[in-house]
């Protein structure tokens, strides 16, 4: 049975979990009273809010990109306005369901992979952005030694990019990515599979199935 490696900031008991990113939380000054709703695309955005006075934002609902990001905001005590389909382009559709007068604040990383904000702004939606965290490659992912025939799971473009700084993908590896945004980061000529759902659990299920066949 081939070992399964999960490159993510989350872990799973059925894989060798490698923390792929080091997160630095930033503390920009934010006047939360200016906004009607948040846009949250990662757990780190919710964690960044822990550095602010909860009473200043606790009544602001959030449009979340996935079930996981929604859960992270709920654990903070926030209310979820709506949940996207795991990709940035699904948020464009969700935002379009609300009035253009609605004032959104996108709590984001310094570097993002999706252009959904630009797309929504072109349609006249009022979205401001606050960079609340930045990520860098962890020592764990840079230094990990991976057997050639392993199953490798990447949960974000940045996790794959960090891995490729010090490793090469072998044709003997089996590559699983969590969604089409991460798939775009796979080097040309390397075969990969995309998980059915944009969840780690779905990736693990696919990896287990590969081990059984």
Automatic annotation (TrEMBL):
EC top class, as a word: lyase
Swiss-Prot/TrEMBL keywords: Lyase
Residues spanning the membrane: none
Tetrapyrrole biosynthesis uroporphyrinogen III synthase domain ranges (all copies): 28-204
GO molecular function terms listed in the Swiss-Prot or TrEMBL record: uroporphyrinogen-III synthase activity
A biological process from GO: tetrapyrrole biosynthetic process
EC number(s) from the headed UniProt entry: 4.2.1.75
Name of the protein: Uroporphyrinogen-III synthase
Organism field: hydrothermal vent metagenome
């Amino acid at each position: 049975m081939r070992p399964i490696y999960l490159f993510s900031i989350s872990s799973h008991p059925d894989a060798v979990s490698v923390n792929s990113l080091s997160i630095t939380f930033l503390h920009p000054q934010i006047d939360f009273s200016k906004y009607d709703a948040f846009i949250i695309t990662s757990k780190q955005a919710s964690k960044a809010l822990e550095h602010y006075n909860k009473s200043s934002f606790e009544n602001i609902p959030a449009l979340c990109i996935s079930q996981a990001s929604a859960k992270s905001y709920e654990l903070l005590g926030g209310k979820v306005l709506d949940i996207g389909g795991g990709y940035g382009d699904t948020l464009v559709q969700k935002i379009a369901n609300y009035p253009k007068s609605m004032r959104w604040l996108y709590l984001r990383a310094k570097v993002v992979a999706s252009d959904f904000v630009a797309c929504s702004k072109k349609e006249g939606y009022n979205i401001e952005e606050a960079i609340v965290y930045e990520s860098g490659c962890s020592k764990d992912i840079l230094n990990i030694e991976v057997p050639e025939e392993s199953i490798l799971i990447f949960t974000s473009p940045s996790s794959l990019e960090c891995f490729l700084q010090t490793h090469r993908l072998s044709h003997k590896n089996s590559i699983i990515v969590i969604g089409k945004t991460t798939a775009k980061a796979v080097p040309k000529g390397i075969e990969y599979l995309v998980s059915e759902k944009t969840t780690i659990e779905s990736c693990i299920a696919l990896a287990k199935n590969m081990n059984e066949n």
